[in-house]
Amino acid sequence: xxxxxxxxxxxxxxxxxxxxxxxxxxxxxxxxxxxxxxxxxxxxxxxxxxxxxxxxxxxxxxxxxxxxxxxxxxxxxxxxxxxxxxxxxxxxxxxxxxxxxxxxxxxxxxxxxxxxxxxxxxxxxxxxxxxxxxxxxxxxxxxxxxxxxxxxxxxxxxxxxxxxxxxxxxxxxxxxxxxxxxxxxxxxxxxxxxxxxxxxxxxxxxxxxxxxxxxxxxxxxxxxxxxxxxxxxxxxxxxxxxxxxxxxxxxxxxxxxxxxxxxxxxxxxxxxxxxxxxxxxxxxxxxxxxxxxxxxxxxxxxxxxxxxxxxxxxxxxxxxxxxxxxxxxxxxxxxxxxxxxxxxxxxxxxxxxxxxxxxxxxxxxxxxxxxxxxxxxxxxxxxxxxxxxxxxxxxxxxxxxxxxxxxxxxxxxxxxxxxxxxxxxxxxxxxxxxxxxxxxxxxxxxx
Length: 447
Fold this sequence. Notes:
Blueprint: H1 5-11, H2 13-17, H3 25-32, H4 42-61, H5 63-74, H6 80-87, H7 94-116, H8 131-137, H9 155-186, E1 195-199, H10 203-211, E2 215-220, E3 224-229, H11 233-266, H12 268-293, E4 300-302, E5 307-312, H13 315-323, E6 331-335, H14 350-365, E7 374-378, E8 382-386, H15 399-412, E9 418-422, H16 431-446
Parallel strand pairs: 4-7, 8-9
Antiparallel strand pairs: 1-3, 2-3, 5-6, 5-7
Helix pairs in contact: 3-12, 4-5, 4-12, 5-7, 6-11, 6-12, 7-8, 9-11
């Protein structure tokens, strides 16, 4: 692990990650599980930094393509669990098929955009089209993103729907005829729904409607009473048949959903692979956009034991100053094995410089471009910082006691290949003792 949670908090690394904005739920999950590259993964880190740098340039030269890619990515919903459940033998519902169909169309759009990029894209980012999913879920080739259980999925379904449509049409005709007869007998217009509403103050009408064998009560409020045209025997029979046909239709549709789910499950792993490609592509684009935001450069990862930063900038402090209309003064530093001591007046920028060094080193090892004019570093096995008031009431430690414990943890790591940052050595005790402790620690680290 490159940093413990305390170091991450002091360096405000998570605040930097807040500026990383993947568009998809898949990319967001990758971001949440982001880990630093181990010292043994130098080649993988170099490849990642190269990709981010290339995409940073492409965003500037082919911005419309990336705007379209991210617009499509915003539409993606997290359907991974649905696909995994289907692949394991589960049956998808209509909403899940709708979302899957939409994902297939979005994948096609992203794939088309990728082909327009001037980039020899690594395979893990290549979003493949899911034409076979489209063929299954859009058998009539309408190109519509909505999902519908089409008649041509089943001859039985087509026959049921045909009978139901004929019965519904006949019922509608009979209903209209009944409404006309009611209007003729009552001398009052009836709504197309077959209902008629009267005020409770119209007692004569209410009595008339109560006695009319063509009407039946449909409901009432404290103001009105609603009546409905009473269906005849033939209408009632048709309504009964239609309900039975709806049940047959539902059963046939359930069988079709099972059949479609089985077709999807056979190649479900291909859909999951496309999701993985979308996630990787989304995250690396987010890194490039983030780098553009602070004009980051690709750090040089070397084997020599050194850390060189030329005109480095702390991205969070720089953003804060920019909002106030003030510039950030860049910091340059060159570190070699041993100890380096920064001295200077209060509020001279020592702490910010210290944290900037740790933050940029961490960013580089997480595969981010860094806010600097140039940076060269060896990969670290760890980054550790001791800074601020670390008094611990729970452990019964004073500020000085907590600081000594923190420094002890740092010294125990000093034989490893890492970066140790200590702000204001021995600040928790008097100047005389603080000087002695600081000198002893620096001499120890020099060796």
